[in-house]
Amino acid sequence: MSTLAEPALIAATGRRSRLAQARRFVRRNPTIVAGGVILGLVALLAIAAPLFAGDAITMHPALRLRPPPEQGWLGTDHLGRDVFARTIYGARVSLIVGLSVAAISIGVGLFIGLMAGYFRRVDAVVMRLMDGLMSIPAILLAIALVALTRASVSTVIIAITIPEVPRVVRLVRAVVLGVREAPYVEAAIAGGTPTWKILLRHILPSTIAPLIVQATYICASAILIEAALSFLGAGTPPEIPTWGNMIAQSRLFLSRAPWTIFAPGIALALVVLAVNLLGDGLRDRLDPRLARRM
Amino acid sequence: MGAYILRRLASTVLVMGIVAVFVFLLLHLSPGDPAAIIAGDNATTEQIDAIRRQLGLDDALPVQFFRWLLAVLHGDLGISIFSNEPVLKLIGQRVEPTLALALTTLIVAVTLAVSFGVIAAWKAGSWIDRLLMVVSVIGFSVPVFVVGYLLIYLFSITLRWLPVQGYSPIEQGFWPWIERLILPSIALGLAYVALIARITRTAMLDVLAEDYIRTARAKGVATSSMLLKHALKNAGVPIVTVIGIGVALLIGGVVITETVFNIPGVGRLVVDAISKRDYPIIQGVILIFSGVYVLVNLAVDLSYTLLDPRIRY
After folding, report:
1. Which residues of A touch B (CB under 8 A)?
2. Burial zone of A20 (CB within 10 Å; 0-12 exposed, 13-18 middle, 19+ buried)
3. Which of A241, A249, B8, B61 has the highest Cβ tally under 10 A?
4. Which residues of B touch A34 (CB under 8 A)?
């Protein structure tokens, strides 16, 4: 609409320009802002949990299954533990797992993908291995990996990362194959630039935008899989309050104490929704070609 | 065409071979002694040694792999540690509820999602199009078990319309069977519907922008015929592709749905095996589920030529 006039206007108004810019960003990227704000708030609550959330661990058998207005903000569970405190602390594991899985799988996938895309000999072998790995349903693969080792947050992170890596490898490889024949890369090769420098300086930058988008989707799927693993009893040890553990332990009390299931359930859905919104917004902004289609 | 099918079959065999290697290595490359893992936390040294001898774990890894692979190819997936029964037999006993749940969900979800996507593309920007966006965002964000408990709380506990959980074999009557599958299918199918409907909408939007659609309209082809015969058929390839890829969602979801709704299927078998550390069961189920996934996607690839005769290999 007024895209042409706006920059001039902003420059002219001086002090108000920052605010106007921010407002324009919100208007143009509502999903990025909504997702980012929700995630920021949840992260803040998770970090500041010890300051306000209260005790998430101590059991009060006398106060078991009390409904919300009676005991605490969100009532108590079957062992008399405070559901509000547990829900707040539960955000910690979800966020740590989501962020770690996204970071590690992007890192590992980026390296393998660059190698596979650039070196033809590596490509054939690596891509067959990735095809095989991708044919194993992610949740089952993670269950198997966790069942083998002692359950801990780091095992869960590794178990969820492994099935995500092939998706990153495919994405990076596709980008590399597209860029590799570009004139500026050929020029660099002809000019005798060392291979590592070509990969880092000329090819890596093209993968960043799609990888940022992919990282948010991986984060969302990691949070969902972590919760599912905990729910199935193949995840984080039961004594750690996670949303999946809370739901698993409250299963038998659905009709008597629905808040014990729906408090962590809604928190989980809200966080995943926020990450997905952020991802959709970033995709629209960073990859206009895809934005039109979805 | 014949050569293509052969090549595609060969690559399927290769992928399944790699899956088998991964499934085999899972147990053997994990930190710790496989015999000790299988025996469990409270096993004595003698029990661990017995298991090691029984499974031939002292042989070289490739020897063990080919012995295991040969057994698998003969339909022997090993013996359950806990119940001492063949894994294949245990899976066979549990396969009916899982198949019933997966197939009803697949059929209902694909029908719903494709119609939803076609209408959303036809009426792009309308309330039904926006509804689809909302449903798809929710479908991707709310986990299967949360949807499941919400449905149970609403329709079984509060409204008392449907039974809470369980499974009733179809031999004992159609209504008790379908009645217990309604809620699990909705919970399981939500993400699948979201995925397929979104792709259907996108693919239809592309096709509806083509010149021949305008031509069809101009010469007075009925709307339904224009949408289904002219447009949907040409949008078929991406839709069928995502139906195949999305089967992974169903397979992972089955494990969770069966736990939520207490359905005694293959998914429950795996979940029960986790706490008992019954590794042969976990291995066997992964192998079979991965095989199903690979075969479904093989079928999808081969169906392209039927959908679009221009595709020749």
Report:
1. 128-129, 131-133, 135-141, 143-149, 220, 224, 227-228, 231-234, 247, 251, 254-255, 258, 261-262, 265-266, 268-269, 272-273, 276-277, 280, 293-294
2. middle
3. A241
4. none
Spans of chain A, pLDDT less than 50: 1-4, 10, 291-294
Over the stretch B254-284, which tens digit does the pLDDT of each residue have? Answer: 999 999 999 999 999 999 888 887 888 988 9
A135, A254, A293 member nearest B15 (Cβ): A135
- Find how far residue B179's CA is from the centre of its chain: 22
Residues of A in contact with B255 (CB under 8 A): 139-140, 143, 232
What does DSSP assign to residue B153? I
Backbone Cα Rg of chain B: 23
Residue A1 pLDDT: 41
Give the B window 229-248 contacts with A, CB below 8 Å. 248
Distance from CA of A52 to the nearest CA of B (A): 27
Nearest to B256 by CA among B81, B87, B27, B101: B101
Q: Pick from A226, A143, A219: which is nearest to B255 by CA?
A: A143
Q: Which two tokens stand for residue B5?
A: 């099918």
Give pLDDT tens digits for B59-81.
788 888 888 888 888 888 888 87
d(CA A163, CA A179): 26
Per residue in B13-38, pLDDT (tens digit) is 999 999 999 888 887 766 667 777 76
B22 token code pair: 């991964």
Contact B232, B210 (CB under 8 A): no
Three-state secondary structure along B247-284?
Answer: HHHHHHHHHHHHHHCCCCCHHHHHHHHHHHCCHHHHHH
User: Which has more pLDDT, B97 or A13?
Assistant: B97
User: Minimum mean pLDDT among A102-116, A216-230, B153-167, B239-253: which range?
Assistant: B153-167
Whether B279 contacts B27, CB under 8 Å = yes
Interface test with A, best of B33, B145, B151, B242 (most A CBs within 10 A): B145
Set of chain A residues whose Cβ sits within 8 Å of the Cβ of B140 = 220, 272, 276
Q: How many CA within 13 A on the CB side of residue A70?
A: 11
Task: Give the number of C-alpha atoms closer than 13 A to the C-alpha of residue A25, restricted to the C-beta side.
Answer: 11
| DSSP string over B161-203 | -S-SS----GGG-HHHHHHTTHHHHHHHHHHHHHHHHHHHHHH
Paired tokens of B215:
């031509």
Read off the pLDDT of residues B102-133 as tens digits, 9 standing for 90 and up. 999 999 999 999 999 999 988 888 888 888 88
Half-sphere exposure of A111 (CA within 13 A, CB side): 5
Is the CB of A254 less than 8 angstroms away from the CB of B141? no
**φ/ψ of residue B86, rounded to 5:** -60, 140
Residue B166 near residue B258, CB atoms below 8 Å: no
- Given a contact cutoff of 8 angstroms between Cβ atoms, the answer to whether B66 and B267 are in contact is no
d(CA B109, CA B243): 10
Between CA A219 and CA B252 the distance in angstroms is 18
Residues 6+ apart with CB under 8 A from A37: none
